[in-house]
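Model it.
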Amino acid sequence: MLRRALTSARLRALDARDRLTGRGDPLVPPRRMQFVGRGDFAETGDEFMRHFLDFAGLQAGHRVLDVGCGIGRMARPLAGFLDPQRGSYDGFDVDRRGIGWCRRRYARRHPNFRFLRADLFNRRYHPGGAHKASEYRFPYDDDSFDLVIATSVYTHLLEEEADHYLAESARVLADGGRLFATFFVLDAESRMRIAAGESGLPFLDADAHLAVVSEDLPEEAVAYDLGWIDERLAAHGLARTEHRPGTWSGREDGLSFQDIVVAARA
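Modeled.
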């Protein structure tokens, strides 16, 4: 209890210092609320903004859906890029506090940004959720978006849930739209590195089409075979256009920590 109080006090002091020195960003949440993700909040968002432009063809007039938007890590850079009249952003997440913070911060400055809380069961972030991710219909009409992004989402979904989310992403994408998602991808090189003990994540049964790090909490980290990903994308009318390996497996030439997969709707 004392350790938690000391940590909270330290984070509040750092936030106060940022405000006093003019380094505070109104779209960067307080440190004590940054509950997911590796690395610096703003730097990570800026990194992925470049990936959206380079690999998913993001344009200022696009309609963007952020699946598992958290507390706005991807929303922040998009707010400075999307055209207020032509472009739009929608995000949903299970975390009530994060969604509430984003609604308050974006409502006045960015009315084309909307945040929705999904009452979904999640063993870590929302164990009291009323609905299963494998049955959740994204609350948007068909053909509503030009780009669907899902960062650090499929890395925590089991097979039935992941397949359903791919289907829902395809449903809400307009013709020619793209899905930008991150995965832990199992292929020849990542499997070799896992077997050699070089991977930062020691996946069990890595030769299978799905592997987890923990049998007690499988959602902690989930990896998928690249062939399985391609097969399920095709089943839902999507075709992979990019696979950029990440550094998680021990590769030094990885583009980001997780693998980046981009698919287009035919």
